[in-house]
Amino acid sequence: MPTDGVNKKRRRFLVATTSAVGAVGAGFAAVPFIKSWNPSAKAQAVGAPVQVSLHGLKPGQIMKVQWRGQTIGVLRRSRETLDLLPEVDAELRDPQSLESEQPPFAQNEARSLNSEYLVVNMHCTHLGCVPQLIPQVGPQPFQEDWKGGFFCPCHKSKFDMAGRVYKGVPAPANLRIPPYSFLDNQTLVIGVNPEGAV
Description:
Number of domains: 2
Number of strands: 11
Radius of gyration: 29 Å
CATH class of the largest domain: Mainly Beta
CATH architecture of the largest domain: 3-layer Sandwich
CATH topology of the largest domain: Rieske Iron-sulfur Protein
Number of helices: 3
Oligomer: single chain
Shape: elongated
Order of helices and strands: HHEEEHEEEEEEEE
CATH superfamily of the largest domain: Rieske [2Fe-2S] iron-sulphur domain
């Protein structure tokens, strides 16, 4: 019966063609699905390093930038401010920054690569509020002999001008120092430690 052979060949051809078209269609459908597993450009940018120009930042001024959804403060400190840091050591919970979250290069009194600039995560280590910078030295409603620093209005935690936490406040640790490095004297990169820094 010659017609049986023709139908079988035709059936095989249709099955093969349908399978090939189905495989191609599945491939086209899978590409966007698999691409959806990759982080979006926006999500990638959130974690990307941030360049900050220090041009125009005067001593006593702070600049705030966003990195990984956190507020990072870049504070330019004067020589007078740096000279006051040792005066509050006895009042601090962790004056040597031994228990702090920071890159190893920031485990020093100024908690920085370049003592003139403090680069600090501005979120209080208690519940994440953003403390206010109060650089003026002198009596404050929350401390009689204030040497300048950060005051958290949410629960009254206090930090000195190096982000070190005072004793007897709700915050359990110093403000965090993010990874950062300098491209040059006027440009900072938040999110990248300097090569070979310790």
